[in-house]
């Protein structure tokens, strides 16, 4: 599930909604007590919200569990999580849980949230670098305000709709977190206010899932700061969810200059222009990044094929390394890869994991051809990128 922001007139006219009454459904008896050490599970068909121990994990596989992560007030913040089945048990069993959030790299805060209208008309708020940030550096780590199943339909019961189920979790939030959640964008006018906010701002958490395979078993998270990161088809940040700290780690996917806006792609970057615009249509804005405004048949082909080409180059580089010193790499091959690298950078694809694979292929060829100086420079760039997985 990709997320969007207030980037179009349709969205700007969307008013913020008050928290729905948990008693809106006459058949539900729902408590919204925000006590941080409470756990709630639907133990009958009326979604009755009952207290249990925060560390209880032996819930029924069919349960909808409302829990606060971590259970006690924490300086790093808390998340309200609607968990299904035994997902909670798996998280609480992760080595190191609950791990404190790491400190950001550098001596000063590296980002700020401010008006992004000067970057693109109607963009609203955005997140900007306040200083130069090296590739791979941790910009910030953040626990989500709310985490729910990607397949929100699993939250509905015969006696309670999805919106009422979300109201329980939002009602459990501390006042500041609840206010921050309600101030987020809602560009899904056909949804209830809470579900609309979730669908607009949710970041998929592939590292967290219920038993079984498939995206529909994963969860989606709504964050206070990360939700303000706008879209670009030329992303410059990398997000990874750490289960032990129950938080997103936002790192620089490439070097970022002071004043530059942080960008995340709400759609696959491997798509041509028309397909990207179709994927972004639900967010009610038209992307005006450099890749979109300068798109061409050549750039569309590059985006469709770059992952396949990189894999082919990787295999080729493996083969050359296998030949060791018996045969040097043809200089024409090295130049071909260097030109391809420039194309990827120009198209803004140097913030992808696939670009890192490309660097590995070039490094192998540099080493084989004896270009030690260039190899050393590349090794340093790759060392910075390795932190993206940390």
UniProtKB/TrEMBL annotation:
It comes from the Eukaryota. Residues 109-267 form the SET domain. SUPFAM superfamilies: SET domain (SSF82199). Residues 1-41 are annotated as: Disordered. InterPro entries: SET_dom, SET_dom_sf, SET_domain_protein. PROSITE patterns: SET. Residues 23-35 have a biased composition (Low complexity). PANTHER family: SET DOMAIN-CONTAINING PROTEIN 5 (PTHR47332). This is SET domain-containing protein. It comes from Psilocybe cubensis. The lineage of its organism: Eukaryota, Fungi, Dikarya, Basidiomycota, Agaricomycotina.
